[in-house]
Design brief:
68 residues, mainly beta, single chain
């Protein structure tokens, strides 16, 4: 379970919820040369360049883990 703040400004290295095409993703933002990239944590999955049709919904502020 995560808490997402839609009013916060997206910044380099923040974790965000974004709509990429028809999918919602949870990724870390990387800003390079005025382009926004969504990088997975942990690495091993492809980095996504944010396109004009994609949308960042909000910045993750808290993560609540369920105990086993």
């Amino acid at each position: 379970m995560i808490v997402v703040a839609r009013a916060l400004t997206v910044a380099h290295n923040k974790i965000v919820v974004a709509r990429v095409g028809e999918h919602l993703v949870l990724k870390r933002v990387k800003v390079r040369q005025r382009k926004i990239f969504l990088r997975p944590d942990p690495p091993g999955y492809p980095v996504i360049e944010l396109r004009k049709d994609d949308e960042i919904w909000g910045v993750v502020t808290h993560c609540i883990h369920r105990l086993p």
